[in-house]
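Lab notes, practical 5.
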Amino acid sequence: MSAASPVFSNRPFAAGAWLRAIIDSSADAIFSKTLDGVITSWNAGAKRLFGFTATEAIGQPITLIIPDDRRHEEEAILTRLRAGQRVERMETVRRTKTGELVQIEVSISPVCNDEHKVIGASTIARDISERLRHAEEQDLLVREMHHRIKNLLSVVQALVSVSRGRARSVDAFAEELTSRLAALATAQQLVLNQARDEAPTATLGEMLTILLAPYGDDQVAVAPCSCPVGEQAATSLALLFHELATNAAKYGGLSRADGRLAVTVNEDDARLVLYWRETGGCAPDEARAGFGSGLIEAALRGLRGTMSREWDGQALTTRLDLDRSAVAC
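Output from the prediction step:
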């Protein structure tokens, strides 16, 4: 046997001392009790978990750490122990010295004397509060993901259903649908980053900047806007700005190399008034109103907003009046 290997003496007290050292160094709470429910031993792990020292706990009833509404569990446990049965991995709640409730997992085994008669029980307890908290957070994330996916699928289904009958061709349908989905993906990524604390809270100015980035810095100017964008509003805002930008690229200020788009926002505690000013484009043609206009109207309803347009012969100014609380939710 190597020098590093532990050697138990034939003397009983040496093996007992070794066993006590193992128990006392365990990270788990390990303690014992009589069949009358009186605590007879208490390791360091039990002190860390429940707050009572061995002196304070030993000799006290086990109800010292059992909340009143859990007393029935102890009677059931003692009944099983007297029958020689073991309690495997039971999740329950116990009380600490400060009165705080802690969620634990326990395994309880009967202790027998030399005549194989049950004289008490040993308990191993482990704090599972952190594990349960992580499980609850994971469940919340899964439910949130399911909710978001369901909402996005509903939006996609609506886009496909309504636009299918109005598309000029399959290629045009695919192109328009793809661009709208890309705008939605951009907005959702911004909100997801915000939810994971990967970036500061997304603002309306940031969303506008990101959605208009494909049109270039030379033609687009976006003034800062500090109003936060909520995850519920992100879809409506993405569709709204995408439709305005698409119209500008087809007929308005972004349809010509010398055209310009300037976006400014006046904000107060209740409303956001956004001015979308295009220069260098054509006069608006109401005959072109179609599915895109329907999307804009639907988005505005979700944002509790209104829209008006004014053409002065050189520039088209679109005025959006939005509810600030709807944008932030």
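Observations recorded by the TA: Residues 129-164 form the longest helix (36 residues). The radius of gyration is 34 Å.
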